[in-house]
Amino acid sequence: MSLARVITAVTAALLAVVAAATPAMASTVPDSDSWPVDENALSTIEWIGLFIGGTALVYVVIWILAMAVNAKSKHHVPVIPPETATDGHDIEATQRMPLPAAEGTPKH
User: Fold this and answer.
1) Which of 16-30, 39-53, 64-78 shows the lowest per-residue confidence on average (mean pLDDT)?
2) How far apart are CA 11 and CA 5, in angstroms?
3) Assessment of whether the complete model's pTM goes beyond 0.70
4) What is the sign of the dihedral through the CA atoms of 36, 40, 43 and 48?
5) CA end-to-end distance (rounded Å), the chain
6) How far apart are CA 85 and CA 83, in angstroms?
7) What is the C-alpha separation between 88 and 73, in angstroms, rounded?
């Protein structure tokens, strides 16, 4: 399936859900006589703080978990040999040596 077909199918499904829910929302506003008013309800500022604070808390928890996993994992760090590890071997002479296959080949 192409991406356009997937987007079209998802959009059609979402529109169908919204269209089906529209008549159900037509007259759902309660009047003050039949619906009791909750005096302990959260204000708008409290709702905003709840959503922003909750989202920030989720980010912080995920960040802490990621840092814990990263700290526990063992990263490979290659060991760099010290300068005195050559034991008298002339590394520069080794680099100047011709390759074995190069001895029999004609030079251009």
Assistant:
1) 16-30
2) 10
3) no
4) negative
5) 58
6) 6
7) 38
Tokens of residue 36, six digits:
């009791």
Return d(Cα 97, Cα 90) in angstroms, integer: 11
Q: What is the DSSP letter of 74?
A: -
Query: In angstroms, rounded to a whole number, what is the distance separating the alpha carbons of residues 47 and 54?
Result: 10
* Rounded-to-integer distance, Cα 97 and Cα 94, Å: 5
Tokens of 97: 């040596």
Residue 85 pLDDT exceeds 60: no
% helix, strand, coil for the chain, step of 5:
60, 0, 40
Maximum Cα–Cα distance across the chain: 106
Q: How far apart are CA 65 and CA 58, in angstroms?
A: 11
d(CA 54, CA 42): 15
* Tokens 């590394």 found at: 91
Cβ–Cβ under 8 Å, residues 50 and 42: yes
